[in-house]
Amino acid sequence: MKTTIMSLDEALKEFFGFDSFKGMQRDVVQSVLDGKDTFVIMPTGGGKSLCYQLPALIEDGTAIVISPLIALMKNQVDSIRSFGSNDNIAHFLNSSLNKTEITQVKSDVTNGFTKMLYLAPESLNKQENLDFLKSVKISFVAVDEAHCISEWGHDFRPEYRRIKEMIKGIDATIPVMALTATATPKVQSDIQKNLAMTDAKVFKASFNRPNLFYEVRPKIEPEKQLIRYIKEHEGKSGIIYCLSRKKVEEIAETLQVNGIKALPYHAGFDANTRSRHQDMFLMEDVDVIVATIAFGMGIDKPDVRFVVHYDIPKSLEGYYQETGRAGRDGGEGRCIAFYDYKDVEKLEKFMNGKPIAEQEVGRQLLDEVVSYAETAISRRKFLLNYFGESWDEINGDGANMDDNSVNPKEAVEFISEMKVLFKAVKGMKERFKSKHIINVLVGNNTSEVSTYRHNTSELFGIGKETDPKMWMAALRQAIVKGYLLKDIETYGVLKITEKGRDFMTNPPDSFIIHKDHDYISQLKNAEDVTVNPKSSGAAMDEVLLKLLKELRKKISKQKNVPPFVVFQDPSLQDMANHYPITIDELKNIQGVGSGKAIKFGKPFIELISNYVDENEIERTQDMVVKSVVNKSGRKVYIIQGIDRKIPLNDIAKTKGMEFDELLEELEHIVDSGTRLNIDYYINDEIDEDKQEEVHDYFMEAESSDIEEALDELGGDDYTPEELRLLRIKFMSEIAN
Question: What domains can be seen in the chain, in order of their start residue?
Fold first, then answer.
C-alpha cells in the first residue's frame, strides 16, 4: 500500500497528535507501508515504537509485534490505547491471560478491531497460536528488541532464533521489521542473517546522545558517594543499577534510612509489587529506583536525570541501553559507573561451567567494558566507535561531555612505540589478541607465548622498557582511531585496517596517547588510608584525631584494657572525618556498631560536640550517612549456629561461604558489639597454651593488627586463621 507524504502527516496528527515526524521516522514508516523488509537501529528515546505503530494503524489487518517482556507489552498496549477510542485496538497474548481473556483477544483480531497484537516468541511458538494467526490477515511482523537474536547482544534469548521459522509457518511473504536500540556491526549482521532480511532497507540513526555526561568513578565508599550525589541533586529522578537482587535491596534500604525516597525493583518481587514501584517512580512519589536490569525496558520517563551503575555492566550494549534512559527529554542526563576490577573478576567466575563458546563471547564483551572504564580518551568517542560510528571529539555534538575530556589524563608521545606495535601485530600474522601481543612485547613468557614459540621471536621483549599498561592504552586508542580492528568473529583477534597499513607505509611524525586510568592503584591507596593507622585521609582533622586518641588512652587505663579495645584507629580516623555528635551518628562510624557506641561512646561524642562548637565547624552533609542494621538471614543463622555450638566450618559450608568469608562476618558481628562464644570450636582446634599466649599478647599490644601479631608471635607457630579466631574471642570477651 502506498501512502502520500501528506496522508502520512495527516495520519500522524490524527493518531498521535504530532505535527511532524522525528528524524528518519517518516522514511521508516513509508518503507513498511511499501511492504519492504525494514531494519531500524535507533537509540533509546529516538521514537522506534512509532515506526511500527503508525503503519499498523494505517494498514489493513493486524500487525504482530514480538516483544521479550510481559511488562513491556503491557506498557506498549496501554500507550496505544491512550491514543485510540477503543481498547481493542491493541492487545497482548501471553501467559498472564486467562481463557476468557484469550477468547476475547482472538475475537477482536478476527473481527478486524485489533491493529496490533503483542506476543512473546514463546507464545508465537505455540501451535494453537500459529494456527490462529494463519486464519487472520497479518499486515507485517515487527520484532522489537531484535538484538535478543544475537549471542553478541546484551540480552540474548535463544527463543528469538526461531522467529523466522515461525513467521514462515504463518505466511512466508509477510514483511518483517526488526527494531533495536543497540547494535554493533556484528549484532546487526546476526539480526539480518537470522531473520533472512539481508536485503532489508536499513535505517540507522546516530547513537550520539549529546546531552548525556559520561563518568567512571573508582568504587571507593560508593554508598557515601551515592548519598552525597543524590542529596546535592535533591528532587531529581534517577535509576541505580545493581547486578544482584540482594544488592538492590541493600542499597535501596540504605538510601531510605538516609532520607532519600527510593524503592527497589527486581524480578524476585511479585508482579503487583513491581508494577506499584514502577508506577510510584513514574508518578514521582519516589525519586530513585534501585534495580536490576529487569527495570527500564519500555519505561518512558523523559526526565530521568541520572543513571548510576553501582556494579560494572556485563556489556557495553547493556550499558548504553541503560544509560539511554537518562535525559530522554533532551535535558540533563548524568551517567555514572563505579569501577572496581574485583567486580569484573566476579563476573568472570560466573561464566565458569558455561559452554566454551559462551565463555569466549562473555569475556570478549566484558573486555570491552573494561577498556571503556580504563580508557583515558573521550568516553563518547569510545562508545560511538564501538557501535560503528565515527565522531569528532573536538567539534562533535556533545564534545567535552565526559570526565576524560573535562579532566584529561597525561598525554605522551608514542610514535616510535606505535611502529613497534604494528610490527608486532603484523609479525604475528594478525592472529592474536591484545594480551598475547603485549605479553610478547614485554617479554612475559606465558604458556600461550611458549606454545606458539613467540618467546624465540625477535619480537619477544622488544618493548620491555615500556609499561604494559601503556601498550594496552596504545592498542585501545589505535582501535578507536581506526588503525586496528578487533575481529569479533574470532573473539577479539587484532587485524590491521587499511588506515593502519597506510600508517605503516607512511608513519606520521607524531602519535600522542593518553595514559589509561589506573583504578587498581586508586582503590589500593584508598584502602591504605582506611586501614593503615599511619595514613590519613585528606579531609581528616588531625587536631581532633589527637584529642580522640588521648581520650581513648585515658578510658583504656580506666577500664584496664588495650586502647584498640575501646575503638580501633580506623574508627577514630572516621570520627575525625565526620564529627559524629549523637550516639546514632556514632553507630554509623566504621567499626563501631550499636554495642560499642553505647558502651564507650558518650565521652567521645561529648568531646566532638564541644570541639565542633568551639571551632565553629560546619559538618558535611555526608556525615550523617546512616548504615542499615544488617538483618540478613545469614548473620542470624551464624549467631544461632554458634549458640547451638555447630562447628564453624559446617556453618560456612551450609551458607556456601569460604572459611575466610565466615571469619570476616564474625569480625563484623563482634565489632558491632555482639558477644560471640566460639570457645567450643577454638578449644578443639587450638592448644590452651597458645590461647593464653595470644590473649596476653593482645592485652599488651598497641594494635590488633594480625600481621603485627604474626611477626611478634612467630609465623611458624601460628596461622593467620588461628590468630583471627583468637582475636575474635578476645574482642568478644574484653570489648563487648
Answer: 5-204 (3.40.50.300), 212-388 (3.40.50.300), 411-515 (1.10.10.10), 532-624 (1.10.150.80), 633-734 (1.10.10.1390)
Residue 280: all three cell numbers together: 510510584
What residue type is assigned to position 614 of the chain? E
Kindly tell me if the per-residue pLDDT of 329 is higher than 80. yes
Query: How many Å apart are CA 699 and CA 212, to the nearest integer?
Result: 56
**Residue (of 420, 408, 426, 427) closest to 474 by Cα position:** 420
Q: How far apart are CA 289 and CA 318, in angstroms?
A: 18
Strand partners, 334: 213, 306
The closest of 306, 309, 279 to 292, measured between CA atoms, is 309
Cell of 614: 568551639
- Tens digits of per-residue pLDDT, 184-194? 888 888 999 99
Integer Cα distance of 78 and 278 in angstroms: 14
In tens, the pLDDT along 39-73 reads 999 887 678 889 999 999 999 999 999 988 766 66
Q: Kind of pairing, strands 201-204 and 212-218?
A: unpaired
Distances from the Cα of 594 to the Cα of 294, 585, 586, angstroms: 36, 10, 8
Say if CB 211 and CB 335 are below 8 A apart. Answer: no
Give the pLDDT of residue 523.
Answer: 65
| C-alpha separations of 461 from 68, 433, 445 in Å | 50, 17, 9
Task: Give the confidence band of 601 by pLDDT, cuts at 50, 70, 90.
Answer: very high
Which DSSP symbol is given to 91? E
Q: Could you give phi then psi for residue 41, rounded to 5 degrees?
A: -115, 110
Residue carrying the nine cell digits 537509540: 43
Nearest to 191 by CA among 37, 388, 354: 37
How far from 221 is each of 201, 338, 530, CA to CA, in Å? 49, 10, 11
Helix crossing, 415-427 with 498-505: angle to 10°?
120
To which H or E segment does residue 653 belong?
helix 648-654
Torsion, Cα of 90, 96, 99, 102 (10° steps): 20
The whole-angstrom separation of Cα 542 and Cα 389 is 52
Contact 212, 240 (CB under 8 A): no
Distance CA 669, CA 126 (A): 53
- Can you tell me the distance from the alpha carbon of 11 to that of 15, in angstroms, rounded to the nearest whole number? 6
CA dist 116 and 61 (Å) reads 9
Question: What one-character-per-residue DSSP string does 268-328 give?
Answer: TS-HHHHHHHHHHHHTTS-SEEEE-TTS-TT---TTEEEEEESS--S-HHHHHHHHTTS-T
Q: Which residues pair with 338 in a beta bridge?
A: 217
What are the Cα distances from residue 285, in Å, to 261, 390, 516, 592?
8, 41, 41, 34
CA quadruple 278, 279, 283, 284: dihedral, nearest 10: -30
